Amino acid sequence: MTGTSLDSIDIAWVRETHAGGPVEVLAAIHTPLSDSVIARCQTVIEGRPFTAAEFSQLEADYTTDLLDGLHQFQETCPDMAPAVLGCHGQTLFHHPTAQTSWQLVNPHPLAQSLRCPVAFDFRRNDLAAGGQGAPLAPLFHCMHFAREGESVAVLNLGGIANVTLLDTPGAVRGFDTGPANTLLDQWTQTQFGARYDHNGHHAAQGMVIQTLLDAWLDDPYFARQPPKSTGREYFNLHWLETRSPTPTSNYAPQDVLRTLVELTTVSAASALPADLDILLVAGGGALNPVIMASLDQQTAALVSTTDIAGVPPQDVESTCFAWLGLACLDQRRLATPSVTGSARSVILGVIAPGY
What we know:
By secondary structure, this protein is of the alpha/beta class. It has two domains: 9-132 and 315-332 and 344-352, 2-Layer Sandwich (Nucleotidyltransferase, domain 5); 137-313, Nucleotidyltransferase, domain 5 (2-Layer Sandwich), CATH 3.30.420.40. The protein is built from 13 helices and twelve strands. Strands 9-8-7-10-11 form a five-stranded mixed sheet, with helices on both faces. The protein has a three-stranded mixed sheet with strand order 3-6-12. A two-stranded antiparallel sheet has the order 1-2. The radius of gyration is 19 Å and the shape is globular. The chain starts with 8 loop residues before the first strand and ends with a strand. The relative contact order is 0.18.
């Protein structure tokens, strides 16, 4: 899969511990997307004109990038013989109130190359059942990170932040809390010329601008009750400027970046129960010490990455969609109503047959 941040192709090879149960990660890898694919995906996400021919070529080139990553992975795991490939693809547009969400990928070359079925298009059946189509990771979090007798939350900090609340035995609730790396990365790219803020270097040199933070947090999305989901088509640099009381150019770039960190952590922390015991953090944001320190200040819970639960933070989403691929292959209905708001439990994804 590739996430909202468009930072890498994430691949995980997993094995079920028992039928329908948790999985263990056997191997994982992160390979780059080509610069051309990243640039064209950003063009589409930003709503700029794109022809049908350009869309078709982008799908082909994106799928080729996935194949290159899979072939590289196969070189390190020559014994891999997957029962199914769960492929999320790249989200180009997500508008749940209009019951539409588009994940770019052509699954058929993948199925032919790996000689196995491919599960893909995970969101639209949930949308058709009245759900948001996102987030889907809480279904995986419930299976793998719940701890008996403890209130646990899982915060995934990809492009968008989503939280899973595992504070009631046997129950799961989850939703998108707001932006995470999508705004941090876009600001870093435009202001510092780097793809992302490595180790929070620039944010660590900044200060929180309270007037900016208050204005951003006043956006109605943060007060909306779940189920709810969002994406880069909403939280982007245009949103940043229109929600700011004065132009962001009036402030030091590192101060804006540090304030964006606070936006991520404050909006996420406000979704957590007061009696939370453990906050497990996943996604690229878990590797940013400024984000982790801010989260530690925002909650009294123990804050750690998902490493302590056996899954490295950067492998959680690829492991999730491998697990969802197995569920799709088995035609298992998943407990989507409490997460996405769907009217009924649904099978997520469809199968492209193997060779």
